[in-house]
Amino acid sequence: MKTYKIALIKGDGIGPEIIDEAVKVLDAVASCCDIEFSYEEALMGGCAYDITGDPLPQETINISLNSDAVLFGAIGGQKWDNLPREKRPESGLLRFRKELGVYANLRPAVVYDELVNASSLKPEIVKGVDLMVVRELIGGIYFGEPKGRDENRGWNTMVYTREEIVRIAHQAFKIAMTRSKRVCSVDKANVLDVSQLWRDVVTEVAEEYPEVELSHMYVDNAAMQLIRDPKQFDVMLTGNIFGDILSDEASMLSGSIGLLPSASVGAKIGVYEPIHGSAPDIAGQGIANPIATISSASMMLRYALGENDAADKIDAAIKRALKEGYRTKDLAQFDAKEVCSTSEMGSIIANYAAK
Ligand code: NAD
Ligand code: IPM
Ligand code: MN
After folding, report:
1. Which of 83, 132, 187, 291 is the most buried (most CB within 10 A)?
2. To the nearest whole percent, how much of the chain has pLDDT over 70?
3. Nearest CA to ligand 2 atom 11
4. pLDDT tens profile 122-137
5. 40: which strand partners?
6. 207 CA → ligand 2 middle, Å
């Protein structure tokens, strides 16, 4: 029997609630796939700051680097919003991604047939949507220097190097080769020099993938096209901030941000995390949708551990729970036969996944 070491970072807000459900589901598939998980918890975000004075203690990095993969919940909340920037939970997360070197954030947006009515768009627009946002994660305006503010000015710098663009472009083209072989690179090359470099380098890298059809789109148009006709997209390749925004937008194709998982990869250890945040408005109420996190655990099995059977079981269990009409509160108005709590949804999926 194989044992995998998983670092668990629950974080703040709904983080602990959703991670607990993902662990429940992982343990359920472990028992029938002849694998085993040993978990080690590590602190990050506001909870880490409250205990240690640092949103990203060194021990969290050590535990993560010493694991096979990291399963991450969410961080942040109003309580920490007025701390100096480097003490904020969000800064801990950015530093974490940078330290691990996970430069590629894969954010699939899939519309489950059972939930076509849950989207804010018409069913015929969203039915069958299956796209993948490939978001550069450790560069761009989030990290560029100079940055800062004084009383009257604030400034950030959007910078990408050729090397950073080359490696994320390769990720996108490789993923496209396993899908419909279409990449749409999203930028703002009509205005930004950094985007013109992005476009030129992506075009160069594309020459190594002659089977893949590359198109380019300005980010403002992409935001519009995503809700006009989302099925035109297969892989959307984009930088850090555009990818952040477009993936939240894409979540509404599927009906709830509580459904969208992600994998942050490109380094030795990957981080598997829902795309949503700590949802302070619903934390502690037992109503958060755990599916984004459970689905992130499935991506972890597939991408980090090569346990595809176990991942398939989880994916099938999520579909079955939705098909049978189980809904958390975020999706309660849409063909729900039974509205369930976070932990009930976790148990239902765990139960199906174990079969
Ligand atoms: P959010 O994603 O936390 O919440 C946005 C809205 O979506 C809220 O109404 C929330 O209740 C809802 N929502 C989110 N996840 C849900 C789920 N699983 N089930 C049901 N509903 C869900 O974004 P926000 O409100 O802008 O940010 C809250 C905090 O989270 C901030 O401190 C922010 O910096 C942080 N944040 C963290 C991450 C992360 O840890 N990766 C990501 C985004 C935001
Ligand atoms: C995300 C979040 C983070 C980001 C924040 C909390 C730093 O919005 O994971 O999407 O912008 O990357
Ligand atoms: Mn985000």
Report:
1. 291
2. 100
3. 244
4. 999 999 999 999 999 9
5. 7
6. 32
> ipTM higher than 0.95?
yes
Tell the residue nearest (CA) to atom 2 of ligand 2. 277
Q: Which residues are catalytic?
A: 142, 188, 220, 244, 248
Over the Cα atoms of the chain, what is R_g? 20
What is the assigned CATH class of domain 1-112+255-355? alpha beta
Q: Which residue from 257, 281, 328, 334 has its CB within 8 A of the most atoms of ligand 1, so it is best to mutate?
A: 257
| 155-207 tens-digit pLDDT | 999 999 999 999 999 999 999 999 999 999 999 999 999 999 999 999 999 99
Q: Could you tell me the distance, in angstroms and rounded to a whole number, from the CA of residue 190 to the centre of ligand 1? A: 32
* CATH code assigned to 119-253: 3.40.718.10
Pocket of ligand 2 (CB under 6 A): 76, 90, 93-94, 244, 275, 277
266-268-272-275 Cα dihedral, nearest 10 degrees: -30
pLDDT at 326 over 90: yes
Domains 1-112+255-355 and 119-253 equal at CATH topology level: yes
Please give the full DSSP string across 118-170, using - where no structure is assigned: TSSS-HHHHTT-EEEEEEE-SSGGGT-SS-EE-SS-EE------HHHHHHHHH
